[in-house]
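Holo model, DQA. Inputs:
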Amino acid sequence: MRLLILNGPNLARLGKREPAVYGATTYDQLTTMCLDAAASAGFEAEVRQTDDEATLIGWLHEAADGEVPVILNPAAFTHYSYALRDAAAQLTAPLIEVHLSNPLAREEFRHTSVISGVATGTIGGFGVDSYLLAIRAMANLLAKPA
Ligand code: DQA
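Output:
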């Protein structure tokens, strides 16, 4: 089973970017951790990152057409991108929204997610473990009989 793990703007700068908020793990380390965990859970996963909204929307269209489950950290797009939400709403397999930080414990503009309403579930606040928990949750979800 394929799995797309998609990351929005500024997430390639993990490790250098506000480490007190996002931790010291680099994006490359996160990618390796996710690929290992996903392989152990039986997925053929790809981890991608873009700073570009249109590219992220294109990847969601690809997932929708291929019935591919998605783990998505929409980064700042979480809070205002109706275009990303409309793309996420088209998904035909589960979507798990992830965040390294806990947006609800941060600035008020981060308290709104326009993505959560079309996600199967949201995991935030556990640093890189948010992704590992999401991979586990996705595996459990897809293992359940319809
Ligand atoms: C984030 C939280 C967002 O508010 C922020 O814009 C990000 C990262 C997180 O993973 O904690 O870029 O999605």
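The chain has a mean pLDDT of 97. Residues 10, 73, 75-76, 78, 99-101, 103, 110 surround DQA (CB under 6 Å).
Archived with the compound record.
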